[in-house]
Every structure is written in structure tokens, then in C-alpha cells.
Amino acid sequence: MLLSLLGADVVKIESRSRMDQARIGSIVLGQSKGNHNQQPMFAELNLGKRSIAMNLKAPGAAEVVKDLYATADAVIDNFRPGTLEKLGIGFDVMRAIRPDHILVEASALGADGPERSYGGYAPTFAALAGLVSLTGDPGADPMMIGGTVDLRVGTGAALALLAALHYRDRTGRGMWVDHSACESVSMLIGDALLAAQMRPPASPTDEPERFGNGHRAFAPHGLYVCAGDESGIAIACRSDADWEALLGVSGLALGEDPRFATGLSRWKHREALDAAIGEWTATQEAEALAGRLQAAGVAASVSRDATALYEWEHFQARGGPVAI
């Protein structure tokens, strides 16, 4: 989708026997399947693309692909490593047709290594990359992550292709790009990887700490319930100035409590701090409170669901919703 929106003429090759699963999802919540092409996500992610259905194992299919190679600037494949070679349409064939061709192979774990043959989907990538271990509420089980990981991996592959195109523009040479979904996701946990690297070899492995709606360095930071509002309000204070502004709006006497005197002490006692702020926000109307906090310089916002977002005056004023 990103490449199409940037102006590329994208042709998607798809199997009729193993079609994109997003095609067969239902637009109706609660229904597992519907008629083909009803799924909004499929329409969004394939915006502006052309499509061709093909059995790559059928006689003559390789020749059709080679014809496409001859007219293409670049190719992205999402198979397990070695699949294109088995089909007779690998990078060597591609470069024989056009020496400056670009191939981005976006596989689960990359083109080499002992587990290169692994396949997977977004939950697999998130689990393998360590992201799941850091996601969830304190003291609770890790939480699985899905679609957002796919977006991260797809964006990484698109950026890799753009970098390869820039390289070709400068040098005249093509490129094979080995793009690992797992490595793309692992970049999101750089601090945890650094901690693992610095840990002495003989030390026990600590259970990773999960922060839920909290933050690893700042407090208060979270989603708080408001009066008559199930969605609540998000508040984030990242400095003493933010904290003083929050106290000014709330009128709470928390500034007199030594547990909340500094940013570090507030973070160490964040459970008690969250409880106190939650008692206050529970008496406030979310929209009005967000406005007062924003006016005071505190990062705060109503937590909206899709319906509230669609009806939001600011969203409407900017032409956000488009009737279809």
C-alpha cells in the first residue's frame, strides 16, 4: 500500500488456491467468513494495486513471471527463503533478465541461519522477537500482538525497497535485500536487548517487567476512568512542570506528599499515585477535563472509540471521514 500511495505501479501476484486470507474475511462482526473482497482491511492494504491470479507451479507460469520481471523495477516476495529458486524464478534469473533488478525477500527469520525455513504471521514474529514478553499489565501474563506487527514489517520492507532504489539511482547496480520480519520487530525492544547484552553471563535471567498503560520512566502516565465515561482520559506527565500543572488543575494536595516530591519518587510510588489520580478523575467529565489539562500544558486526551472519533468535531473539520 505504501509504495502504491507513493506512486508506484504495483502488481500483486496471488494464488487462486491459497489466496490472501484478508479477501475472505467478513465485513460483519462475528462472522468468520463472507463473500470475497468484502473485507475493508483488504481493500485498504491493496489500495491502488493491480492484481493477477497465478499458480506459480503450473507449466508456463515461470515464463509469465519472467515477462513481468522484464517490465518491473523491483520485486518483493513473502515466501520462505529458497522458494523462488525452487520455482525457477529466483534472483539469478531476475538479474539475467535485467542486471540492475532489485529483490526484497521478506521472510520470517531471514535467508540464512539454522531456522531460516520458519514461516509465520504477526503473532509469531512478535513472540520470536521478544515483543510479547514485554507487553501486558504488571504481574500478568504476556499479551499477544497481531496486526500492528504486520504494519511494522510491511513498512520495513517498503523502506528497504526505497533504499535499494536510491542505491541503484546512485550506482546503477541492483540489489538483493534480505528482510527478516523478526529482526524488524526486534528493533522495537532495543533497550531490553541492550540490558541482555550487558547482563553478566552467570547472572540469572530476570523476568521482563511489563508496564501496561504505564511508562518505564515517567509517572503519572496512564488511562484513568472518568465520570459516566467508560473510555476515560489519558494523562502523561514527563517533567516537574507537567506535574505542577496537573496539581494546579486538580487541586489535589499530592505535592505535599514526600513520595511524590521528585520524578523518580513519583515513578517508584506510581501505583499509589495512579490510585489517587484515578479517584479524582472519576469525579470529572472526560472532555471538559482534557480541555482544562491541555490549557495548562499537560498532555491529556479523551480515549475515543471508533464512533466517537468519527463524530469528533475536530476530525470532521479536517475532512477526516469520507463517506463511501
Shape estimate: elongated
Q: Kindly report the CATH topology of the largest domain.
A: Rossmann fold
User: What is the ordering of alpha helices and beta strands?
Assistant: HEHEHEHHEHHEHHEEHHHHEHH
Q: In CATH's first tier, which class of the largest domain applies?
A: Alpha Beta
CATH superfamily of the largest domain: Crotonobetainyl-coa:carnitine coa-transferase, domain 1
State the end-to-end distance. Answer: 19 Å
Number of helices: 15
Could you explain how this protein is built, in words?
It is a single chain. The chain is an alpha/beta fold and 324 residues long. It folds into two domains: 54-188, Rossmann fold (3-Layer(aba) Sandwich), CATH 3.40.50.10540; 221-317, formyl-coa transferase, domain 3. It is 40% helix and 13% strand. It is built from 15 helices and eight strands. Strands 3-4-5 form a three-stranded parallel β-sheet, sandwiched between helices. A hairpin with a 2-residue loop joins strand 6 and strand 7. Helix 6 crosses helix 7.
Keywords:
3-stranded parallel sheet; 2 domains; 3-stranded antiparallel sheet; formyl-coa transferase, domain 3; 324 residues; elongated; Rossmann fold; alpha/beta; single chain
Provide a compact summary of the structure:
The protein is an alpha/beta fold and 324 residues long. Helices cover 40% and strands 13% of the residues. It contains 15 helices and 8 strands.
Q: How are the secondary structure elements laid out?
A:
Elements: H1 2-5, E1 11-14, H2 40-45, E2 50-53, H3 61-71, E3 74-77, H4 83-86, H5 91-97, E4 102-107, H6 122-128, H7 147-171, E5 175-180, H8 181-186, H9 190-198, E6 221-226, E7 229-236, H10 240-250, H11 263-268, H12 270-281, H13 286-295, E8 299-302, H14 306-311, H15 313-317
Parallel strand pairs: 1-2, 3-4, 4-5
Antiparallel strand pairs: 6-7, 7-8
Helix pairs in contact: 6-7
